[in-house]
Amino acid sequence: MPSAPGGPRILLRRLREIMAEPVPAQARLDRIVILIAANMVSEVCSLYVMRADETLELYATEGLNREAVHQTKLRLGEGLVGLIGESAEPLALSDAQNHPAFSYKPETGEEIYHGFMGVPVLRAGNTLGVLVVQNRTYRVYTEEEIEALQTTAMVLAELIASGELTGLGEPGTETAARRPLHCRGVALADGLGLGHVVLHEPRVVVRNIIASDVDSELARLEAAIAAVRSSIDEMLERGDIAHQGDHRDVLETFRMFANDQGWLRRMREAIRTGITAEAAVERVQSDSRARLMRSTDPYLRERLHDLEDLTNRLLRRLVGRDMVEKQDALPDNAVLVARAMGPAALLDYDRSRLRGLVLEEGGETSHIAIVARALAIPVVSAVENVTSLVEAGDAIIVDGDAGEVQIRPPADIESSYAVKARLRARRQAQYRLLRDKPSRSIDGVSVSLLLNAGLLVDLPHLGETGADGVGLFRTELQFMIAERMPSAKDQQALYADVFASMGDRPVTFRTLDIGGDKLLPYMPRVEEENPALGWRAIRIALDRPALLRIQARALLKAAAGRHLRLMFPMVATSAEFRRAKALVEGELDYLARQGSPRPTQVSMGAMVEVPSLLFEMDEIARAADFLSIGSNDLMQFLFAADRGNKLVSGRFDNLSPAALRALRRIAQWAGAADCPVTVCGEMAGRPLEAMTLIGLGFRRLSMSAASVGPVKAMLLALDTRPLTEFLDRSLDAVAPGHDHVETLRPALLAFAEQNQIPI
Ligand code: PEP
Ligand code: MG
Question: How do residues 123-133 score in pLDDT, each as one tens digit?
Answer without folding.
Answer: 878 899 999 99
